[in-house]
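@here heads up, posting the sequence + SMILES for the flavin-adenine dinucleotide run so it's all in one place. Ping me if the SMILES looks off, I pulled it from an old spreadsheet.
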Amino acid sequence: MIEIRENVCLAPYTTLQVGGPARYFAEPENEDSVIEALCWAQRRALPVFVLGGGSNLLVSDAGFDGLVMHICISGIDARDDGGKRIYSAGAGVEWDRLVAQAVAENCAGVECLSGIPGTVGGTPVQNVGAYGQEVSATIVRVRGVEASTGERVEFGNADCGFHYRLSRFNRADAGRYILTHVEYALQPGGAPKIAYADLKRHFEGASCPSLPEVREAVLAIRRTKGMVLDENDSDSRSAGSFFKNPVVSRAVLERIAAGSAVPVPHFEAGGNVKLAAAWLIEQAGIARGFTLGPVGISGKHTLALVNRGGATAADVLRLKAYVQRRVHERFGVELLPEPVMLGFGEVNPASATK
Ligand SMILES: Cc1cc2nc3c(=O)[nH]c(=O)nc-3n(C[C@H](O)[C@H](O)[C@H](O)COP(=O)(O)OP(=O)(O)OC[C@H]3O[C@@H](n4cnc5c(N)ncnc54)[C@H](O)[C@@H]3O)c2cc1C
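bot reply: prediction finished. Complex structure tokens:
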């Protein structure tokens, strides 16, 4: 029988290391235990929240008055299929373990995603991506359980609704499914992807770097930005990028450009334009290393809000609001947070009740 613990502090389960307790807490190690925990919550009409590595999450100081299901399904299997190597991993596997194994086995497709914190189960949710790769390019199957019915479900790539940092699992169906396994089709002997400017610079003049060399370069570049979890680097005590790059109309871009002495970085986004949140924050006068009480902006990355020690969720929210206000005052643009908020009333936790 699955063990259900009470009043478990969630802060240590998140990379920001803030937040209060879960009223109930379970750690299912297989699909059957997920269903068992769901039934337990259903009998008590409790909301359920699925926790992976807590690396894209801000938990409120009040915590969560329901069941937090910390997915601990382990195991990586690999098989050959039609010239590809299919890696099937439990949702609780640490993502970077899978990347390290694939790279060591000379399989291409996820090498640029080295060093991203969190679990395998978290990767389809926001279509994790970095340095020119996204998991949507390699995911072939996602398995899980529907929270409201306890039924087992399976999705092919086309069913996942992948877009930039989006999928059905964080949009229309947010909180509806508990993902238990993900399959990635990787290319044995494939060439590493070197599309990102920092990577290109790193390998300038080098001929045909290997997958392990690219992995090491990605990790090295990420470390300079505090984007690899490291106990000794307080700049990595974050939830990664805290703000999304805002998508605005061309008219808004033109208005901002007219008032700016320097070119405004932007990218095309389906008829609109995507602005660089980091640029907006810096131009609004908030520099890297800025501090507000026990929280601040990373000294290495403008988009990362970091816990400098002993911070509460309220401290993080205060800094978030400060950054949003300054950017809004300066540019009239609203910055939206990227991490999932739990216990603030904004989330869409899985419903265990029919
Ligand atoms: C230092 C740092 C660097 C980062 N760099 C990047 C980056 O380069 N690119 C990038 O895309 N992201 C990045 N992130 C964000 C984060 O690592 C990813 O979003 C990651 O995939 C989150 O996975 P997780 O297991 O930690 O999910 P959690 O934070 O635990 O949960 C996030 C959301 O996913 C849901 N979820 C998690 N597991 C499951 C599951 N098994 N079934 C159903 N729902 C689930 C949760 O309910 C929640 O809604 C970074 C974060 C940090 C702290």
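MO: The two ends are 23 Å apart (CA to CA).
MO: One more: The chain has a mean pLDDT of 95.
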